[in-house]
Amino acid sequence: MGNRLTCDVVVVGAGMVGAACALYAARAGLGVVVVDRGPVAGGTTGAGEGNLLVSDKEPGPELELALLSGRLWAGLAREAGDAIEYEPKGGVVVAETSGGLSALEKFAAGQRAAGVEAETVDEGRLHELEPRLRPGLTGGVRYPQDAQVMPALAAAHLVRASGARLLTGRTVTAVLRTRGGEVLGVRTDHGAIHAPAVVNAAGTWGGELAALAGVRLPVLPRRGFVLVTEPLPRLIRHKVYAADYVADVASDSAALKTSPVVEGTAAGPVLIGASRERVGFDRSFSLPAVRALAAGATRLFPFLARVRALRTYAGFRPYLPDHLPAIGPDPRVPGLFHACGHEGAGIGLATGTGHLIAQVLSGGRPELDLAPFRPERFHGDEVNSR
User: Fold this and answer.
1) CB-based contacts of 247, cutoff 8 Å, min separation 6
2) Closest Cα to residue 297, out of 347, 352, 235?
3) Is the pLDDT of residue 289 over 90?
């Protein structure tokens, strides 16, 4: 092919968000090249549980994006069948005390007003939904819109369905610009790709790609572990988590936070999350984190104490200081678009993000107001870089 390629849009990043940007841009009639220094789903996507959640989001722009994304995921699931292992299994958030249940109900009431389906359940109904939960829980809230996909499969499917040209194992070394500062494409270690638009879907490395274009985007990595059990029959029917998970997601603390999030999968293993801590790009195994996950999960589901854990994996969630992703055009660099910083929600929010990016790329009006997600909203050093 020589060392030069021309297209309408270069998407940097072949994780779920990049895959969705490629799919919707291609459906808008644009010629797309996806470039990644690793394989498809080689970063945060491959280390995620595949959650498509509305239950953990308070009313506001992220919840609107989650509701839009949920509708789009359901549509893709109708097209793709089993190719993405889409499971509309719903979520159940449980409270251990009456105070916890009151707080959950108040949170759910606000969500209902914003379009979320949320059903309060008492202890008896909780055990009908999840018979193996420990007795004595006060109650909870059921969220039928929560769903799950198998992340690596789904990302690969979206890239394939897009028809985009996929270039893996290629590192972007520069964002090419005209004298006037407009995007001309990217340079990689295998040559240049020329395009009038570049989408930064580089996940945890989104800040580094922005820097190549001469702009600042303060994306930080937040490490998380997931514990994987031996394959089991379907003993856990929903995604089940404790009420304190929502607070941990919203926390700005760099310290280790764990709250039990437990779910079965189509393949059999139970996935146990969720830990989060800011430790830079340190991948080393953390016994305290994994012990805390196991303890939290067995507190909810006592039978898990007798189940073997086969492995753990770690990933980095791309995190922006105000907990909202950067989505849309960067006014500082004409032709640069951002689609990163989704923290632990990128798989769920990918479809909406890709859809909105494609609307803007093709000159249309985006379905949601992009102002809360604007990439230039950060000034100064909100958070130290590690």
Assistant:
1) 259
2) 235
3) no
Radius of gyration of the chain (CA): 21
* Segment (H or E) for 9: strand 9-12
Other Cβ atoms less than 10 A from the Cβ of 135: the count is 8
Dihedral sign (CA 270, 295, 140, 115): negative
DSSP character at residue 309: E
- Helices in the chain by DSSP H: which ranges? 16-27, 61-80, 98-113, 123-129, 151-162, 206-212, 244-250, 287-300, 346-361
Q: Do the bridges between strand 165-168 and strand 32-36 make them parallel or antiparallel, or are there none, so unpaired?
A: parallel
- Residue 332 DSSP one-character state: T
Q: What residues pair up with 194 in beta bridges, in sequence order?
A: 6, 185
Query: What gap in Å lies between CA 259 and CA 365, rounded to an integer?
Result: 39
pTM: 0.93
Q: For the residues of 178-197, what is the DSSP string, one character each?
A: -TTS-EEEEEEBTEEEE-SE
How far is 22 from 115, CA to CA, in rounded Å?
28
Order the strands of the 91-95 sheet from edge to edge.
119-122, 139-143, 91-95, 239-242, 257-264, 270-276, 220-229, 309-319
CB atoms within 10 A of CB 184: 16
Shortest CA distance to 211 belongs to which of 221, 222, 200? Answer: 200
Q: How far apart are CA 297 and CA 241, in angstroms?
A: 9
Strands 91-95, 139-143: pairing kind: antiparallel
Nearest to 229 by CA among 275, 270, 263: 270
Q: Helices 346-361 and 61-80 sit at what angle, rounded to 10 degrees? A: 90
pLDDT tens digits along 158-215: 999 999 999 999 999 999 999 999 999 999 999 999 999 999 999 999 999 999 999 9
Q: Does residue 256 contact residue 288 with C-beta atoms inside 8 Å?
A: yes
pLDDT tens for each residue of 85-107: 999 999 999 998 888 899 899 99
C-alpha distances (whole Å) from 73 to each of 40, 112, 347 are 19, 20, 10
Q: Are strands 336-340 and 4-6 parallel, antiparallel or unpaired?
A: unpaired
DSSP reduced 3-state for 27 = helix
